Amino acid sequence: MSIKAEYIWIDGTEPTAKLRSKTRILAGAVDGVAALPLWGFDGSSTNQAEGHASDRVLRPVFSCPDPVRGGEHLLVLCEVLNTDMTPHSSNTRAALAEVAGRFAAQEPVFGIEQEYTFFDGERPLGFPAGGFPAPQGGYYCGVGADEIFGRDVVEAHLENCLAAGLGISGINAEVMPGQWEFQVGPLSPLEVSDQLWVARWLLYRTAEDFKVSATLDPKPVKGDWNGAGAHTNFSTRAMREGYEAIITACEALGEGSKPLDHVKNYGAGIDDRLTGLHETAPWNEYSYGVSDRGASVRIPWQVEQDGKGYIEDRRPNANVDPYVVTRLLVDTCCTALEKAGQV
Ligand code: ADP
Ligand code: MN
Ligand code: MN
Ligand code: MN
Question: What are the residue boundaries of the GS catalytic domain, all occurrences included (predicted)?
Answer without folding.
Answer: 92-343
